[in-house]
């Protein structure tokens, strides 16, 4: 959905780096990053994947800054080089001070400027209570799907797909809106393209499925700049494809 406005990667970067800055320098580096990134630090593979995702975030923020505020390109580039240098020079097998020695809290000053400037053209973030409400509604839907007499592959697909949406909402404050929207669009796309899947859904469950997904998508659209009406139209189109009366 190309008309959507990206959320603010500078805000997401700043949130992580502020948490790191508040930690004692003698803290284990892996534990510190695990806490800041919201993953289990003992699972090294997951930690490294998440750290790699984090490293991409400031580059996205700098790219947006350069597009919107080209006069500050030099300052943005200098800040980015400092952060990348600190990230690559740290030792994950040592203390977090191996990072903070080269990137202290004061280095966030320009990042805070970036955050405020990009926020001028970025939609507001969703409140945590809204995210929690979405997740609770999705969990109720998952339980409903589990209780239904459906083909096993259909049930497994729906549960897995809905869990993916819940997980992407878990990561909203780290990864932003794109993974949430993509996980919803995958389910919608499956409904459009797989007639066997579509026909195996009872109409009441299909209607409930897209009522819930439509509500989540409408709420998420606040954080993307997409008109909620797009999702209403999508839901109506898909519901029209559902078999009625089964």
Counted by DSSP, the helix tally is: 13
Q: Please provide the ordered H/E string of secondary-structure elements.
A: HHHHHHHHHHHHH
| Poorly predicted regions | 1-5
Q: What Rg do the Cα atoms give?
A: 21 Å
Overall pLDDT: 85
Largest sheet: none
Q: Which percent range fits the helix content?
A: over 70%
Portion in beta strands? under 5%
Count of individual domains: 2
Distance linking N and C termini: 33 Å
Q: What gross morphology would you assign?
A: elongated
- Helix and strand composition category: mainly alpha
Number of strands: 0
Report on this model:
About 70% of the residues lie in helices and about 0% in strands. About 30% of the residues are buried. It is mainly alpha-helical. Residues about 1-5 have low confidence and may be disordered. It folds into two domains: about 10-120; about 130-240, no CATH class.
Characteristic terms for this protein:
246 residues, mainly alpha, 13 helices
């Amino acid at each position: 959905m190309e008309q959507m406005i990206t959320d603010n990667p500078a805000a997401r970067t700043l949130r992580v780096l502020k948490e790191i800055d508040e930690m004692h320098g003698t803290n284990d580096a892996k534990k510190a990053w695990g806490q800041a990134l919201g993953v289990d630090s003992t699972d090294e593979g997951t930690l490294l994947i998440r750290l790699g995702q984090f490293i991409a975030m400031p580059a996205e923020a700098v790219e947006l800054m350069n597009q919107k505020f080209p006069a500050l390109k030099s300052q943005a580039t200098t800040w980015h080089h400092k952060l990348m240098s600190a990230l690559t020079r740290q030792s994950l097998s040592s203390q977090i001070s191996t990072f903070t020695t080269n990137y202290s809290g004061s280095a966030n000053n320009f990042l805070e400027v970036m955050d405020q400037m990009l926020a001028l053209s970025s939609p507001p973030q969703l409140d945590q209570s809204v995210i929690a409400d979405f997740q609770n509604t999705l969990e109720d839907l998952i339980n409903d799907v589990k209780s239904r007499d459906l083909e096993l592959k259909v049930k497994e697909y729906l549960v897995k797909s809905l869990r993916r949406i819940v997980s992407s909402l878990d990561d909203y404050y780290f990864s932003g809106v794109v993974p949430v929207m993509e996980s919803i669009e995958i389910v919608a796309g499956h409904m459009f393209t797989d007639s066997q899947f579509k026909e195996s859904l009872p109409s009441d469950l299909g209607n409930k499925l897209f009522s819930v997904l439509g509500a989540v998508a409408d709420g998420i659209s606040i954080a993307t700049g997409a008109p909620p009406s797009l999702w209403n139209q999508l839901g109506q189109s898909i519901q029209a494809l559902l078999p009625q009366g089964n």
